[in-house]
Amino acid sequence: MTLKKTHRLLSALALIPAAALALSACSSPAAEPDSSSAPTNDASGSGEVRTVKVAAVGIMSDVVLQIADEQGFLEEENLAIEITTVANPPAGVAALQGGQVDFAFAPGVVFANARSQGVPVQIVAGASGFPEGVEPGPELDLYDDTGVYVRPDSGITSLEQLEGKSIAVNARKANLEATASQALLDAGVDPASINWVALDFTSMVESLKNGDVDAAIPVNPFTLKAEEAGMVRIASPAAAFFGVGPSSFWLTSETLANEDPELVAAFKRAILQANAYANDHLDESIAAGVALAGLDIPVEKAGKIYWPTEQVTQDHVDHIVGNLISIGFLPEGTKLENAIVQLG
Questions:
Q1: Which of 98, 271, 291, 328 is the most exposed place for a label (fewest CB within 10 A)?
Q2: pTM score > 0.70 for this model?
């Protein structure tokens, strides 16, 4: 899968240093973006091609951006795409908040954290998740694009043995720490006893191999990289945390949703078409995701992947919020209202 000329890949540093972005996304609420700095697009219906700027993080969910471009789903909507790869999802949310991109990928926990802090972002469509019709348990776990990995010689075979150990995640108090925290609590382990280490996905696998951390929680396709290196998966925590439905999302700002709903609707249609295509052409889509991560791994080792085609509902959001409250990531009584873009 190769990108058309309408796709331009930019460095995250071309916008704002990633560390600063992550801090601004996870600290106190910032002011709503000034409309003068927001990306501009033609919403006049004239047929002119409009460019949407999207913050992605280089994981399997991002493949739909390529699919939407290559299969003409964006072209059908008179859209072109400009992708910025950021260091982590909070950085993408910060770029969205600052008006530097139109859309951004964010796991459910990152979205809930940002929204609960007053960051004016809303859900456009699902990016990854768990399909209906699959029973909770081992079968649904197969769709978990994350996993808790340990070294084969570590002697660790269960979550119970991680008490007081070090675990690498890509960002603190975000998706991976949240899902693992619930799984640890269910296993009788206090998450406060864990030394959580924030590392990018490539570095976390290397750190695990080198013995610098006791466990790591990568995201597909970096789970494949861990397995290629001989690391052993001992848990799949996301399936139990999120249940059936979307677990990560494509977001936009309230400003753009209010000022240019036609653009947001067009992007949503293209993404949902791309998600459906990805599910219908699974091997092709997984192969593209593996290539995206620069890996050389057979498709059949990639496990099961699901790109949501259903509409995101308030129930999906409430489920995530309820779990975050139960593990102490959000205060009691937190409610995220007006969390989903309402289009026509």
A1: 328
A2: yes
